[in-house]
Amino acid sequence: MIPLFSIIIPLFNKEDYIKNTLLSVLNQTFNDFEIIVVNDGSTDNSLNIVESISDSRILIFSIENSGVSAARNFGIQKASGKYLAFLDADDFWEATFLEHIYKLITKYPQEQIFASALKIKTKKGIYFATYSKLDLKTNQEGVLNYFQYSLDHSILHCASSIFNKEAVMKIGAFNETLSTSEDTDYWIRAGLNYSVVFLNIPLATHQVVNNGLTKSNRKRFKSIDYSKYNSLNASDYFHEYINKNRFSSALKYKLLGDYESSKKLTEKIDFSKLNFKQKALLNMPLSITKIVVSIYNKFTYKKNYF
Question: Which residues fall in a coiled-coil region (predicted)?
Fold first, then answer.
């Protein structure tokens, strides 16, 4: 029997988290799903933990370590469900996540992408993601333009989004040349093609894990090629979103000491759309920029800002 949902979980060295992630799916109140675990060359005990959980809905595949995008793309090819989720191996759902998404699918059958609000768990506590200009009340849903409501935190996240598989085929594969920002690249392509049915209830949790892989990815940071959108006849919200992400990428390059790449992106930024703090971070000496960013990150958390 073909399941309604395919939950694709790329797995690389998440032995401390994968069991909780899997149980959060297995304990859903809506249970018409399959779980596709793509073991991306884990070297810890992650695979053994997955294999110890006996449930026929869990399908396990192992590939050579190729990165999260390749693992997700492999999972897409193996998925048999009509709707796909890209849940990371350290994130988790509330028990009613799929039940709420199913109700949205039934209510908005013409739409292709569905998402709930998100919680962010760090060592300091749990935060609610804040969304730009969102006027939905708690428990209220709406069909939203991705770029208009993602100028602060993205309304799409791997932990909280569901895609019709036909839409995934149109959006295309995850970019395997990007070791970071591959999700942002995907959301841009999704937002250019579809609206998002967004439910303002935090039914998914993104767990911020600062492990060795994260640090390594930062060193290998490669910006999205924003230049391909320069001539695109899109909304002001889209161009503001791209400008914000150009700033973020330029700042990351600066923090890594890649001044040439940072300069190239900075030259393309519309500074009239930046606030005073953002302008200052790009212009001040690197040593001061690092101090400011370190202080900011110590006292607050803002996804995709620094």
Answer: none
pLDDT tens across 10-63, in order? 999 999 999 999 999 999 999 999 999 999 999 999 999 999 999 999 999 999
* Cα–Cα dist 35/242, whole Å: 34
Q: Does domain 5-212 have CATH number 3.90.550.10?
A: yes
CATH 3.90.550.10 in the chain is located at 5-212
The residues, ordered by sequence, that sit 6+ positions from 115 with a Cβ below 8 Å of its Cβ are 155, 156, 157, 160, 161, 162, 196, 197, 198, 199
Q: Which residues in 146-195 belong to E strands, given as ranges?
A: 161-164
C-alpha separations of 156 from 78, 120, 185 in Å: 23, 13, 12
Q: How many CA atoms lie within 13 A of 111 on its CB side?
A: 21
Residue pLDDT, tens place only, 67-80: 999 999 999 999 99
251 phi, psi to nearest 5 deg: -70, -40
Q: Rounded to whole angstroms, how far apart are CA atoms 77 and 36?
A: 10
